[in-house]
Amino acid sequence: MKSKILVLLLFSFFNSYSQKIEKKIGVFKITEESFQAENKKKISKSDFYFDKSGKILEKIKFGRHHYRKLNIIGEIEQYSYSDIKLLFSKRYVSSCRNCSFTLYFSKYIYDDNKLIHENVYRGESDMLFMSLDYKYKPNSKEIHSNSSTYIENKYDDQNRITEQSQIFEDTKKVRWKKEFVYAINFQANKFQTYYGDGNENTEMEIIKYDSQKRIISKEVIRDKSKTFFYYYYAQNGIIKKIEESENYNDKYELKYTTNFKIKKREESVDSLTVEKINSQLIYGISM
After folding, report:
1. Does the chain have fewer CB atoms within 10 Å around its N or its C terminus?
2. What is the DSSP string of 146-188?
3. pLDDT score at 94
4. For the chain, percent of residues with pLDDT exceeding 90
């Protein structure tokens, strides 16, 4: 009887200990956690892993669509590169408490340094789920998929996006459009739908940057609401907090706070690495 108890105790010890083992992926681990301002309740959590140049290697999102407890993993994204080119990515997704994970993986094809094709597959087989084709013209890029619409991006001479539209493949009619205007340390974006259903939507974004071209605030203006975001940075330049407020009777009230905690194995971080990490954490863009 004593031997059985000892075995159970040892099993319990090693099982609990194994949960504390920190896997080592890349150089930087950044944990993102969001809280409701009213009651400090944690509503989301994600872990990001980056290599020493700032390329994202893995993202883990906790909680699932139909089971929001943050003690279980809901989604895992993994990325593989050849030098600076993203060549392969995997995405594991589960939506309910006892659901198994569904695997999606993507393969990327380039012409020199330009991404021209992306195939997305579902499951362990090579069953094609979605295909994306990237077409380039002077100061523009089109993204076509196996759907009735495509995305067109237009750029200025500084390679800044000036216009983004969703366009029907057959009629070339614009479904929605977003326009971008730039000034010194400011940016204004206007989003407009053209659905033709009598319920068109308009949205404005006013973005302010500091002298280092980092975003410090964003105001989103809709027909009947305003949302304000403020961005804070650590001494090394990596984003450390985002505050989200909403406007009530011409007064902003803090609604959500998102904190970023960094764990790194290198002391110094160069500006380009910081820019890549911030682009992923703030915008979800790999550079």
Report:
1. N
2. SSSEEEEEEE-TTS-EEEEEEEETTT--EEEEEEEEEETTEEE
3. 95
4. 76
pLDDT of residue 54 exceeding 70: yes
Residue 130's pLDDT is: 92
Dihedral of CA atoms 210, 254, 285, 66 in degrees, nearest 10, equals 180
The kind and range of the H/E element at 251 are strand 251-264
| Tokens representing residue 137 in the block | 């013209």
pLDDT-based confidence at residue 116 (cuts at 50, 70, 90): very high
Q: What are the b/e assignments for 2-37, b being 16+ CB within 10 Å?
A: eeeeeeeeeeeeeeeeeeeeeeebbbbbbebbbeee
d(CA 160, CA 164): 11
Q: pTM for this one?
A: 0.86
CA distances 154 to 22, 148, 162, 229, Å, are: 43, 20, 6, 26
Residue 40, helix vs strand vs coil: coil
What are 279's strand-pairing partners? none
CA–CA distance, 229 with 243 (Å, rounded to integer): 6
**Do 233 and 262 touch, CB atoms closer than 8 A?**
no
40 phi-psi bin (left φ>0, alpha ψ -120 to 50, beta other): left
